[in-house]
Design goal:
By secondary structure, the chain is α/β, with parallel strands linked by helices. Helix content is about 20%, strand content about 10%. The radius of gyration is 22 Å and the shape is extended.
């Protein structure tokens, strides 16, 4: 306990400046962790016998509105174009491309074989899957989805992978209004997700 307390105080000290990327506190913090690894006898995993491993940081950009479109057709020839940033926005992991298909509702869009749960009761091949945000029983301590802790199964990327494995061509996420009935400011959420000026990380 004392050892953990010492590390906690060291890494949260004001001199670490929050350990933000590119700032002196970050370098001090990472150097401290590397020294602790060495002290404990851990072998470096990176090349050059180093504890520091370089990697490529991937970022996403939204692009112009003309490349981000969502059109809904009711089957009678009437269509409606939704406004990006006002009525919908794509996820950062969305692929660049264009698809179309009939819409199929898949509940929460969760396929969790280890838990014996699968929201895909029908064939969704070639279809656009419509799913709810979050997960069932999210306020139930006895929920198989990690109780009241948000489970990995409910993340958007995990749901997208599940839809892809089932053969869907796209996924639409909508608010779980039953468990989250509060009025949300959708435009503010879209601006937060895709800010006008993307944050830049200094190197």
């Amino acid at each position: 306990a004392n050892d953990l307390r010492t590390r906690l105080y060291q890494l949260s000290d004001d001199s670490m400046q929050g350990r933000r990327i590119g700032e002196p506190g970050n370098y001090k913090g990472t150097a401290y962790v590397a020294r602790e690894f060495e002290r404990m006898g851990l072998k470096p995993a990176a090349s050059g016998n180093s504890y520091f491993q370089p990697y490529n940081l991937m970022t996403a950009t939204l692009g112009p509105p003309s490349l981000n479109a969502l059109e809904i057709a009711d089957g009678s020839g009437l269509t409606r174009q939704l406004a990006v940033g006002q009525e919908f926005y794509p996820h950062r992991f969305s692929a660049t491309g264009s698809v179309s298909g009939a819409v199929a509702f898949a509940g929460f869009g969760i396929s969790a074989p280890p838990l014996g749960h699968d929201d895909y009761g029908g064939d969704v091949k070639g279809k656009v899957v419509l799913t709810l945000d979050h997960e069932p029983g999210e306020r139930d301590p006895n929920s198989p989805f990690d109780g009241v802790v948000t489970s990995e199964w409910s993340t958007a990327w995990r749901k997208a992978l599940a839809a892809q494995e089932k053969g869907a061509v796209a996924v639409l996420f909508v608010a779980d209004a039953h468990n989250h009935p509060g009025v949300a400011n959708f435009e503010a959420a879209a601006r937060t997700y895709w800010p006008d000026k993307p944050p830049r990380i200094l190197t």
